[in-house]
Task: inverse folding
């Protein structure tokens, strides 16, 4: 199939390009206006799903595996994420304030507050459009994001830090420096929730090492994101989105 040819001879591209495209669209959705955040999320979810399909034959470890450990980890990480909400916010604000006092950073001259990702507020409470975008967010974060992120972080980046010929490194091999660096980089993409991201990065990778495969972490990640999405809608905790 022509669209798969660029990935057939490049194990790196097959694991990096889908995540890179998804990450680019994530940045774009926050720079194109308030309403654009929503339809760009739908777009990036569809593009991400398509890229998973395109790279499926080349990325052999990208196969979801259900196990009791995956369920426990998925539920547990969701509980951890919700439980650390206030801690993460206060810690991030404290670190920012300390940096400004020490002169390491300066407060923005014209701060522009970022509105929560809340379709009810944008399209009308209970409207069809609001529920469409909520469903898209839950489905995208549960069924697309876990494949892209786990393949990039726990499969590619972890092993590539250890050795450029990353495919020669077993997923079951524990390597302390790549383990920590991968979790730190994973945490950095979660903004003020970096502490939660760091801990769940460690936990998901522990699951990979325990099961000696990537699929359980993909399932656990999906369960976490699904339950967190339900929590967001149920409790109106839009800050998580």
Result:
């Amino acid at each position: 199939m022509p669209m798969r040819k660029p990935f057939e001879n490049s194990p790196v591209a097959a694991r990096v390009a889908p995540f890179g495209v998804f990450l680019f669209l994530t940045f774009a959705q926050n720079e194109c206006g308030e309403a654009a955040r929503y339809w760009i999320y739908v777009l990036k979810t569809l593009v991400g799903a398509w890229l998973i399909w395109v790279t499926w034959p080349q990325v052999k470890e990208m196969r979801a595996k259900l196990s009791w450990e995956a369920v426990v980890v998925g539920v547990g990480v969701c509980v951890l994420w919700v439980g650390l909400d206030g801690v993460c916010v206060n810690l991030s604000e404290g670190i920012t304030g300390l940096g400004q006092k020490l002169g390491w950073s300066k407060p923005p001259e014209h701060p522009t507050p970022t509105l929560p990702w809340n379709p009810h507020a944008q399209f009308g409470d209970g409207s069809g459009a609001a529920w469409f975008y909520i469903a898209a967010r839950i489905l995208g974060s549960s069924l697309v994001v876990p494949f892209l992120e786990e393949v990039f972080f726990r499969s590619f980046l972890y092993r590539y830090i250890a050795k450029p010929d990353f495919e020669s490194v077993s997923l079951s091999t524990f390597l302390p420096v790549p383990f920590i660096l991968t979790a730190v980089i994973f945490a950095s993409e979660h903004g003020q929730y970096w502490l939660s991201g760091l801990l769940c990065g460690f936990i998901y990778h522990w699951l990979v090492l325990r099961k000696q495969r990537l699929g359980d972490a993909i399932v656990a990640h999906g369960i976490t994101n699904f339950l967190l999405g339900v929590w967001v809608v149920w409790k109106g905790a839009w800050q998580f989105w």
Summary: The radius of gyration is 19 Å. The chain has a mean pLDDT of 90. The chain has one domain: 65-240.
